[in-house]
Amino acid sequence: MVATTKLLLHTDALIDFYSGKGEHKSVHAVLKSIEEGEFEGFISASTIMELAELMIHVNPKLCFQVINSLHTTFGENIIPVNSRIAVESVQAKIKYGLETPDAVICATARRCDALLLTTDNGLIRSLAQGAGEINTTTPLDFAKKAGLIIKTDSE
Question: At CA 82, angle to CA 80 and CA 83, rounded to 5?
Fold first, then answer.
């Protein structure tokens, strides 16, 4: 089966998954479907840096396990920040008033032509101003629409 739907996971969705909080069950369902080839998954290289920044001083061993897991799941679909993404990040910062990490992730999703999965409702509201330039939804909403889960994360 050829994966056609492209998904880019925002850092906060992965934080939910690894912390077991928020939308962790729906993120797990999405990650599993990516690993099984149902969807093509991407993350920004900046996401690895953000996760490492949060974890390395608390639990370096776990930090490296998480990074290795991401490499296993996403492999070549860990997208580096190149000059095009950098320029588009600046444009996103200006247009949507985003912080740099969010701007980089949004520019990466746009470059990959991927649906951005985020648990940051503020980011979703900010991007809604862009008339669909960057398509975004929550992992839970995506998982329900894709038939990956039936129950919500709180059930």
Answer: 165
